[in-house]
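Hmm, what's this shape?
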Amino acid sequence: MAGVESPLGDSPDPAGNDRLRWARVKALFLGAMDRPESERPAFIAGQCGDDALLRRDIEALLRSDEAAGSFCEDGAPRLLTGGASPLSTACHRLDDGAHLGSYVITSFIGEGGMGEVYRAHDADHSRDVAIKTLRTSAPDSLEGARLLREAHHASELSHPNICEIYEVGEADLLPYIVMEYARGRTLNELCRGTPLAPEQAVGVAIQISDAVAHAHGRGIVHRDLKSANVVVDEAGKATVLDFGLAKRLPEGDVRRTVESFTGNDALAGTLSYMAPEVLAGAGGDTRSDIWALGVLLYEMVTGALPFDGRTPFETSSAIIADPPRPMPRQVPFALRLVIERCLAKAPRARYQRAADVRSALAAIERHRSWTVAVQLLMRRRRAVAAAACLLLALPLVTWSVERVRQTTGAGAGDVVKTLAVLPVENATGDDGFSYYAEGLTDALIAETGALGPVRVVSRISAEQATQRRQTPAEIGTALGAAMLVQGQLHGVGTSIVLNMQLIDAPSGRVVWEDRFERPAREVLALQADVVAALATHVQITLAPRARQRLSNARAVSPDVYEAYLKGRYDWNRRTPASIASAIVHLSHALMLDPSYAPAYAALADCYNQQATLMVGTDSPQPFRAMAADSAIRALQIDPDLAEAHAALGYVKHYTWQWSEAERELKRAVDLNPSNPLSRIWYANLLMSRTRMDEALRQAFIARELDPFSPIINANVGWILVYARRPQEAIDQLTKTVAMSPDYTTARWRLVKALLLAGRPADAVTEADRVVQGGTRSPAALSVLGVALAHAHDTERARLLLQQLLNQHDREYVAPGTIADVLLALGDLDAAFPWMERAVDEGSNWAAYIAGDPANDAIGNDPRFRRLLVRTGLDTTR
């Protein structure tokens, strides 16, 4: 090439020259892309001078990028990863009427990075077909290999929504693929600038996700899903095209990162649809296709892409670091939740299978009213359990109320005002705002509970008690509440409109009702208006602190409040994926408004959950530091925010700062006595310190506040185990399991109660149910291993122990889970090093070693005493 000298001077090196030349082509292409389109011709002319070949290659790359809409296009980003220009050979376009094998070319369809696509007629089968050819005339070239790979992969797939491959052929050294001719328009043509109707978008997306699930089930990922690779016909049938970038995953593991996604095609696909991990160089797997599904869905319902920039660099940066651009409020909330989960930055926070995306979309399609699909999925089992177990739970609630009177010292004649704020009804006519009504319910409960001499039942218990549409008297009896608060949300938009009623539970009589309306930015002030009115009609004397808090309600952007509500909604689900999703929403809220203290407190709660054995998948230490930082930031803004004090106390509990933890948790309880989580966290701290009577007192109050919560009830049973009250623990946890059969933590703790009661066979049965039900987390395997060891099934126990050790070699496994099995097997010399590791990393497990009945047998072992000293739990010093 003119102007390029051999790097060796005297001896020309054609290969070296090719590398240098292609490096310059790439650099100039990126330089052109970084400039406005109107300035590109002058830039190219100035850089290329008389080098027509250089100019041609750069212009071809630009055309390739612009033509990303062509359904055979691989995209300029892929071309830039090659070691040599795929455009260096001349392209010979076939004329209409030309023969390619037994096919007659009827028209040219499009041009892409690898070659051309034509429409042709197959006389043998009386059908029209599409034919993809290569630019190169070398069938054994890289491009030829890729074409054959596409044909091979696609030919293994037989699905009504995947383009069918008919034949792979070669004519005059020109390789080609013959495939189904997909009639219709590409998605990017259908929705460019004009969104599809939500129901149409869902119908198309169900077909696409079903096709992708079919491919994933056969170990094949697409890697270039985009709107230009999906054709939709007039009947609404979608066809996924172009498996030219597809990769086969390692056999037996459809989610593992593919090691072969490196080298020349590491950056495969089209930039705007690439997942963050692919752009970061970490490769891709099925979850990268899930990301692309999210981009497709977003594009269908908005008519635009979720991430965009003036240059490729800006676009890449947005994909990696920024939240997607907000979707219009016309997009139903259920659908927004699905899209946002697909577009979670962390792969583990997304749907893990395309089949899961399809199921979520199908749920939305079944419920044409656009009910929040994720909310339905979350509540379905809970509602069934509540309906089935309400009568079983009523004695528990009654006993709980009486027990609280005993533990608080309240006499039978003392008046304890207990309110139940029933779920606010979404009466807006748009079920997409159900999440908003739920968030208002939680906010009203929190604000009312902070008033002082009043006890407010949690939303979850109030929600479950109303599932069967009982009378006010029945609901009040179930919840131990004399007064019921009922609300209807009538407006969300520029203004928030809320109708409220106060009902005397025994008589069902409405004793007060009013209508509240404020601009959307004043939603917090609206909540304060409602709470102040309630305080007046329930005859609560406001403490000065509560009065000041209600009068100082600040304005908040509707977008900030919405992101916060989404974050709290996801946090309430308590799964690894939902916690990761919550962090995205809350971070977005704080990006929009860094002064919104509740979002910092909620973020701290998320990081605290990521440090637990039940949710966490890595060492807890970094998450604790982030939780502390977020809680402190919240308190710097709002020193009286109960949730922030509770989150900080939680951190200090598990970092063994015992006095500071108790101070923060007591402060949280003082600021909001009706928050059951603050009380149960305080109870757990007291349990760590082996102050069992105090722990049970707080736990019973928490259960009165939230009588149907599986989390609260399971914790009550756990504390009863540590209090060495096995039969009470068994009764409590058996009721909890009946109330929420899928809450595995309750079953794990029931296993410990059964072991304490000397019933190892029953403990094994219960632990087996968890593992056989599909929960094979390290914690679940450990519980089963412990039960088997106590039942003298040493062989199975050691097999499970080996599974845990093998898993530990591959990924994070909490050391305490391994230590527990070794202790149960009596192998103390092997157990103590694992216990020391748990203490070294600050595991939650280590905070409870002083009172754990499993450690009774080693209580006098010097090695155990040293661990107690290290954690500050040695009460003998």
Notes: The first strand starts at residue 99 and ends at 100. The chain has 35 helices and 17 strands. Residues 373-408 form the longest helix (36 residues).
